[in-house]
Write a structure and sequence with these properties.
The protein is α+β, with helices and mostly antiparallel strands. It has helices at 24-30, 82-98, 105-113, 151-156, 195-199, 208-215, 267-271; strands spanning 7-11, 14-18, 54-57, 64-65, 76-78, 139-141, 166-169, 176-179, 205-207, 225-230, 239-245, 248-253. The strands form four sheets. The protein has a five-stranded mixed β-sheet, sandwiched between helices. The longest helix has 17 residues, at 82-98. It is globular and about 60 Å long. The N and C termini lie far apart (59 Å).
Length: 279
């Protein structure tokens, strides 16, 4: 089979054709099947950490992660079998029993769909309960919300910034995303690009501006407007999405599908917008 030969497979009984090299998740999307993901992002390398996107492949002994499993000709995939639903439900329950998912609307929505009940593990279930780390005026770290999806590590490493300022430290329930020797962010190798913040799915990493507004009960995403513009600091042409509330920029993101940024920015593009307000 040449690289140009499309791949044909079955998704929930419907034949789908995708380009060679596409993933099973790509095939699910092509079939119009919405698949839950957590550690996956279009601009990052799949790390197979969360197992929320698993599907059932005919002839396979175990469920397979759709985000990283390459689609093959003749595959027969079921995305909503009892086995798949049970697996996804348990993963979502385990996550919800240990961390705070109150600012992860996608996970809450998927939990409702699969009937996940983290509370059934009882009040004695071990939870991550740590003080929020505020070490600068740019972003905060709230490990109570961290699900160890590894997306921030990937964005800091080979997939975007190549700074390698953070990695997973510890084992088991004690595993945390950490700087080297758990030093403070200002003293670490962090260059404050904020790409880790951009890919975090649970708001464990969030803009200090957003955090302050939430603390004051003034964070109102439903009232915010998002305007796309071009970063003014250099000639690269990075696109910015300005999130504006009450005529004030509250945070800046970048579109994942933009050919220049792929959702990634530097410190100036991500955090250097205060001059617009004369600050």
């Amino acid at each position: 089979m040449s690289d140009e030969t499309p791949v044909r497979l079955s998704i929930d009984g419907n034949e789908v054709e995708v380009p060679a090299g596409a993933s099973v998740l790509d095939a699910c999307n092509a079939a119009g099947v919405e698949t839950p993901t957590l550690c996956y992002a279009e601009n990052l390398t799949p790390v197979n950490a969360c197992r929320v996107c698993v599907v059932e492949q005919e002839g396979a002994r175990t469920l397979v992660p759709s985000c990283s499993r390459q689609a093959e000709d003749g595959m027969v995939i079921e995305t909503d079998s009892d086995r798949v639903r049970h697996s996804r439900k348990m993963v979502l329950e385990f996550l919800g029993s240990g961390v705070d998912l109150s600012q992860a609307p996608d996970l809450e929505r998927w939990g409702a769909r699969y009937g996940a009940r983290p509370d059934r593990y009882g009040s004695g279930a071990e939870r991550i309960e740590e003080d929020i780390r505020i070490q600068d005026d740019l972003y905060i770290r709230d490990y109570d919300k961290c699900v160890l999806c590894y997306k921030c590590v990937e964005a800091c490493g080979d997939d975007a910034q190549h700074t390698f300022a953070i990695a997973v430290a510890g084992r088991g329930f004690g595993a945390r995303i950490s700087t080297e020797f758990d030093t403070t962010l200002p003293d670490s190798a962090c260059v404050y690009c904020g790409n880790c913040v951009a890919v975090c799915p649970t708001n464990a990493l969030q803009f200090k501006t957003e955090f302050d507004l939430r603390q004051a009960d003034r964070w109102k995403p439903e009232e915010q407007t998002v305007t796309r513009t071009v970063c003014s600091y250099c000639g690269v042409g990075c696109n910015l999405e300005l999130h504006v509330q009450d005529e004030t920029i509250v945070k800046v993101t970048s579109p994942h599908d933009h050919e220049v940024t792929s959702g990634h920015l530097c410190i100036k593009g991500r955090f250097g917008w205060q001059y617009v307000h004369g600050n």
